[in-house]
Every structure is written in structure tokens, then in C-alpha cells.
């Protein structure tokens, strides 16, 4: 069996301004397949290498695969569909397989618009892909496809979904095969080193209405911290990785396991810097541990502050307050950790005043970095359904956090983009002139100057926020911005969207164990954390002064 994985060539000017990110999905799927005895696997990263259609066609034909697998998030879905169309033309006998979060929930629409796709993997794919490849290898495709749990396919012009596959219960058994990637290309601009995105836990017990990840992973499961550090050590030793970001939605949910992870990094003296995304409430909870996290190498925390106005926080089902956001940022900066504040803008009730409020909040809170993301209503999220006809753009290629999908009632999309850019200009100009050059010394200062370099590089190349593609050149051009929405794209019918999930929305807050369990996961971890003796990191037993814990 010859298996070919392809990452579609999609770019949006968002997170990639910081560098090229290694596609972790192919490493985890390949690891599962090789463990099952399927070792003839090739990977083409069309995104990182900017591979065009014709070069891709030749690469597929030369390899002559039996199975072609592609993944897709919502904005890259059309690119993914096109990749598999090319694959069917270049290797007609190959089985075309699509996975990822978008196809998981939108398989009805995807199969209708891309009938050349043979199978869609719904949900996390390690066990499903092995079952699918084994069935194909044994000659059971398509006769036995209805027995494969967790897939969807077209039959007589209709989408058919088999029974849902169980989630991977023993995630410690998953071993990623990172050797398929060309590591020379995966660089992190702020530090000038190779970057990786390993996974510590899957799922999230929180149910923010704009998010899809809690629906995709279904259960909250966490790996043995020692095994995660084993993987990081392998990435450093075998592939020269010098920085990593944990892929988890919130790696600090399980405090005990996260502390053990940090202690393991310290004990092994790996001396590697890393970053995470997490919630404000976890930072407040762990105030005394922040110097310990910094000692373990944590240098960058991206906080889901999301909105300046409490009204928006409530709409998004965030259990945080404006005052908590400010406090968490202060704590992180005091611990020598670079802190990034995330703001979601561009809802239907956005005004010039609310956008200015987010800027004033950013000035008051004093994060090191700030990011204004356009509200992007995933077409399978709860909030998308609730917004109804307020969503008028169904060109999913533009669902990328930098394109205004919702048109505010009080302004047009060009003005919205211009005012967001004005926030960026003012915030980073002040940081560049009055903050970063004097942000202490050592790692923290170098990191911030590296972030500034990444911003300047993306701005010079016109890649930041997709400005080059929409022809935005400043306030004078805001009335001429061209978002180039594909008006032929239509909203999916409700029956073509998988809305059903195993989670239940919480009644109120989420930090009580019982409520967290009610929202669909994490019972074992939460019980373990509550019942076991508290894990006391070594740093808490040392008589170190606060100054010894600062970034050097």
C-alpha cells in the first residue's frame, strides 16, 4: 500500500506571519499507520513549499499512490477539494480521503460539491485511518465501507455517514512520526529556530460558542507528561527543534499534569523556550506558579481575552471579566513571560466606538502583544446557527480571522478593516519606540524584538492580514478594498451540517468540577486532581528570590 498525504497550499496572512508551521496531523496519522504495518508513506507539504497544481499533479503521478489523504480547516476546504480532484486525475485508481474539522461537520455539503472524494474521516483520525487503509488493502473497498466507523461517503448521490467512531482512549499509545517532514522549512521567525507543535491533551471541557474544537475532539484526554517531554526531546535531538507551541486548546486545564510537564522539562535540563494558549482564569489560579512555569521555559502566553466589552464576553460564553483580563496580564508580565491579548472584533454590533474601546483596553492592560481577529463564525458552530441571516458570506476560503465575514450595522467592511489596522499601527508603533527596546534583557527582550521583526517582515511583504490580496494601502484606500467574495457559494442546508455533539452546554460557570463534567469530559482528570495529594513543584520548595525567577 502506497499512501500519500498532502497539505493543501492555502495562505491567509494570519498566524503564518510568525513562520512556517509543521503540519502535525501528518505526523500523528503516519505514526499510527506505521505502527499498524503500513510504512510506504510519502508527504507533500504544498503550503510550505508553495507547490502549484501542475507540480503537484506530477508529484502524485510519479508516486502512484493507492490512497491520497488530505486535511482541511474551513478556509482551506476548497484547496483541499481541488487537491483530491487533481489526485483522482493523476492517479485514477487511488482512494481519495479527506479529513479535518470542516469535513467532519460539513460532509454533506463537501460530498455534494466534490463528488470525486471517496471517503471523509469524521473526527480524530488515527484509529479510523488505520481501519480504512486496512479495509482497502484487504480488497474490502467499497463493499465493506459501511462497516468502517467514523467515515462518510456518497452513495446514489446522497451522503452516508457510518456510526461514529469512539475517541482514542489511550492517547499515550499514539506515537507521531515526525521524520516525514522537511524540517529545514519549519522556522519560527521571532527566534530564528525550527518550530514544532506537539500535542499534550485533546479536547476541552469548555464550550465557547464561537469555537469548534470542543465539538471535534468530544472528550477531554491528557497524555502522560513524561511521554510528551519524550516527544519534545526527540524533536530537539533528531530534528533540531528550538521552540515549540503546545497545540492544546488549554494545556493548563489539568493543573497537576501541567505542573508535572514543566517539572519534567526542568529536570531534564532541555533549556527550550515554548508557548501556549490558555484562559485568563487559569493564570489567576496559578499566580504563585508563574515563576515556575517561566523557569520551565514558558516564554509566550496567548490569552483568550477575546473582547473588551463584557457584553461580548457573555455572548461568547466566556467565564471571564474585564478586570480579570487585566490582572492576568499583569501577573504574566511580572513573571517575565511575554503575554499576547486576543481580541475578537467584527460582530454585527461593532462600532467605531467599540473598536476604539479595544485599543484603549490594550493600552490599559499593557500586554506585550495584541491581536485583533475578525470574528469568523464557523459554519458548524452554535453561534453561526444563532446568528441566522446576519451571516451573508458563505465563501469559506475567506473564513480566516483576517477577513470581515459579518458586516457591522454601523459601518462597511472596508471601514472595519481600516479601524482594526489603525489599532495595530498605534499599538505596535508605541511598542516599537517605547517598549521593546527597553523590555529588560535576555530572552524576553530578544523574543519581543523578534516578534517585531516578524511583524515588519509580514508588513513589508504585504502578507500581514492579507492586505496585499485585498488592496488595502491605508485609510485613503478603505472605500476601495476588494474582498473578492465568491458570491456563488451558498449556505449549507441544516440537514447537510452535523450539529449533534456529545457535549452539553453548561448552565453557568465552568470551574466547578461538576459543571465541567456536565459539559462533556475531563471527569478522570478533574477527580484525579482533586483527590490526589497536591503536586508540589521543586521551585516551590526552593528559597529563591523573585529576581531569580525573572527572564534572563
TrEMBL record:
Cofactor: [4Fe-4S] cluster
Domain Radical SAM core residues, every copy: 190-415
Record keywords: Iron, Iron-sulfur, Metal-binding, S-adenosyl-L-methionine
Domain annotation B12-binding: ranges: 9-143
Keyword S-adenosyl-L-methionine applies: yes
SMART domains named among the record's database cross-references: Elp3
InterPro entries: BchE-like, Cobalamin-bd, Elp3/MiaA/NifB-like_rSAM, Methyltransferase_Class_B, rSAM, rSAM_horseshoe, rSAM_sf
One Gene Ontology molecular-function label: metal ion binding
GO cellular component: cytosol
SUPFAM superfamilies the UniProt entry points to: Radical SAM enzymes
Keyword Iron-sulfur assigned: yes
NCBIfam families: BchE
Protein name: Magnesium-protoporphyrin IX monomethyl ester anaerobic oxidative cyclase
Gene (name only): bchE
